[in-house]
Design a protein that fits this description.
Largest sheet: 4 strands, mixed
Distance between the termini: 49 Å
Order of helices and strands: HHHHHEHHEHHEE
Radius of gyration: 20 Å
Strand order of the largest sheet: 1-3-4-2
Structural class: alpha+beta
Number of strands: 4
């Protein structure tokens, strides 16, 4: 009888969720922006967790601990940019990027706010001047923009995306599907800064990957 209950619980899990990128940031966003939906999700998952406790299946309990984050990630990472803030959009791209790296056996990038500011300024420049690519309106290159911010680097790379009204999942998937962008996602740089900007018509998202000239910074900005 216990075996039958276990099979039923496993079926319940698989029908209640699908495997997507789980992360540490999206639950906070979802809980604060959509509290009613969040609380309903928590109630459903906790009921299922109680069932796993009742039948004494430790593996199922571990699965339920991850289930909430997976469901929330699916909900929030498929919202278009007009339904979440610029900073939230950046954080989702960050989480999805690091999940992809971890799935490929690589350590996650570390967030650097100073690099994010450079990326935000460039994404806005691209939107306001209707540009797409890695050259700014003042003919600046990725290296030029870091130098202008007083940031010394030993290696860097940059991804840019422009499609209007895309979700975070769609953007990261396009980069994964492109060899050059995918190589950047799986690169050896230590840090990342992401900048998102839209004027309601044009949209640009910039990822900048970066390793300092003198190695890891002991005052990492998360």
């Amino acid at each position: 009888m216990k075996f039958i209950l276990t099979i039923f619980a496993i079926f319940f899990i698989s029908s209640f969720s699908q495997k997507i990128y789980a992360n540490n940031g999206t639950s906070y966003i979802y809980q604060n922006r959509f509290p009613e939906q969040y609380n309903r999700l928590i109630e459903k998952v906790e009921s299922a967790r109680d069932f796993a406790t009742y039948i004494g299946n430790v593996n199922l309990l571990d699965t339920f601990n991850d289930l909430i984050e997976e469901i929330i990630e699916y909900a929030i990472s498929n919202y278009p940019p007009n339904q979440i803030s610029f900073r939230e959009f950046e954080w989702l791209i960050f989480d999805l990027t690091n999940e992809y790296r971890e799935n490929n056996g690589l350590p996650p990038f570390i967030w650097r706010e100073d690099i994010a500011i450079v990326s935000r300024n460039f994404s806005r420049d691209l939107v306001e001047n209707n540009l797409m690519g890695h050259i700014g309106s003042n003919n600046s290159t990725p290296a030029d923009r870091l130098a202008a911010a007083g940031i010394a680097w030993s290696s860097l790379a940059e991804n840019v995306d422009q499609l209007h009204n895309s979700t975070p999942n769609q953007i990261v998937q396009r980069w994964i599907d492109s060899e050059g962008h995918r190589n950047n996602l799986l690169g050896n740089e230590l840090y990342i800064g992401i900048g998102f900007y839209t004027d309601g018509y044009r949209t640009r998202i910039v990822q900048k990957f970066f390793t300092p000239q003198f190695g890891p910074d002991p005052t990492d900005i998360y």
